[in-house]
Write a structure and sequence with these properties.
Layout lengths: L1 E2 L2 E4 L2 E3 L3 E3 L2 H11 L4 E3 L3 E5 L4 H27 L4 E2 L13 E8 L3 E2 L16 E8 L5 E7 L7 H12 L1 H9 L4 H14 L9
Parallel strand pairs: 7-8, 8-10
Antiparallel strand pairs: 1-2, 2-3, 4-6, 5-6, 5-9, 10-11
Helix pairs in contact: 2-5
Length: 203
């Protein structure tokens, strides 16, 4: 699992801010650590140091990359004259005419097994289709997740978009073009346009 000072699991570099727990440590410290334990792929246990300066720098960069991707996506949809709202900053005058589609870029997905509630779960805006691209510091894609808003009732659209980005070709494309937001925006827009009939208007 380890290579040098990094934890590498299934090709993904786990941030150094996460300390791996051996089976023995997990058994001995599970009660002490409680919901601080984070799991990668449900099988690998870690304890995070969320104050780690390098990790905070990485998460800040993910936020900047998210903004850049959203700007590129909005331009791409505008150029195609498609009424999709992808940018958090450029709100359309008549929001009811637009479908809301959001992408976030985040570190590798290490989850707590503690049951989420309304205060701890990542919240999507009303009418928003939210996708999260999890990458490591080498821009290797861990996975692309999505949130389903029950009122939208369109899991097939979400599955097609996330599934296409999650296959090997999709992950390779995202890694090879990471930072070239125009190329990534075109790729995502192509996927969306290919299944746009599944993106039913809100009611």
């Amino acid at each position: 699992m380890q290579e040098g000072d990094s934890n590498i699991i299934k090709g993904i570099h786990i941030p150094k801010a996460y300390t791996a727990l051996s089976g023995t440590e997990l058994h001995e410290r599970r009660e002490e650590l409680g919901d601080r334990i984070r799991w990668f792929k449900n099988n690998y246990a870690f304890v995070p140091n969320e104050e780690d300066a390098e990790f905070r720098k990485f998460t800040d960069q993910c936020k900047e990359d998210t903004k850049a991707l959203r700007r590129a996506l909005q331009k791409e949809f505008n150029d195609r004259k498609v009424k999709i709202w992808a940018s958090a900053n450029k709100r359309p005058k008549n929001k009811k005419e637009y479908q809301r589609l959001s992408f976030l870029i985040c570190p590798p997905f290490l989850a707590s097994k503690t049951k989420k509630n309304a205060d701890t779960r990542l919240q999507q805006k009303p009418g928003e289709r939210l996708f999260v691209i999890h990458v490591d510091e080498q821009h290797t894609v861990d996975l692309v997740r999505f949130w389903t808003n029950g009122k939208l009732n369109q899991p097939l659209f979400n599955c097609v978009v996330a599934g296409t980005l999650n296959d090997n070709n999709g992950k390779d494309f995202l890694k090879e073009n990471y930072g070239n937001w125009e190329n990534i925006a075109k790729k995502i827009a192509d996927i969306v346009m290919g299944c746009i009939d599944l993106m039913k208007p809100e009611k």
